[in-house]
Design a protein that fits this description.
The structure is a single chain. The chain has 98 residues and is mostly helical. It has a domain of 34 residues. The chain is built from four helices and no strands. It starts with a helix and ends with a helix.
């Protein structure tokens, strides 16, 4: 539609000289510039597919389960270390008292 309007302007005898030079400048550039709707839709579909695959792999890898187990193990190790340090502290106090 845009290109046909430019061609009509070029054929027109009434068009000012500046308009003709502008029309010649933009002739054929309508398809060169910008992104088409089809390319945009294809890009969006590819991004959706990639994100779906990434989310599926993230869920199936067990990363969340491993992270929660690691948190539990860390808390248990912290409590165990605290008990050991309390025992050492009490033994040190007993040695100092004697």
């Amino acid at each position: 539609m845009y290109k046909s309007n430019i061609k009509g302007l070029l054929k027109s005898d009434i068009a000012p000289v500046g308009a003709i030079s502008i029309a010649r400048h933009f002739e054929g550039k309508a398809k060169e510039n910008g992104i088409t709707l089809v390319a945009l839709i294809i890009t969006i579909i590819v991004l959706i597919i990639l994100s779906a695959v990434t989310i599926f792999i993230f869920i199936e890898s067990g990363l969340l389960t491993t992270a929660s187990k690691g948190t539990e193990n860390y808390a248990n190790a912290q409590e165990y270390e605290k008990e050991i340090m309390n025992n050492i502290d009490e033994k040190a106090k007993d040695v100092v008292k004697k």
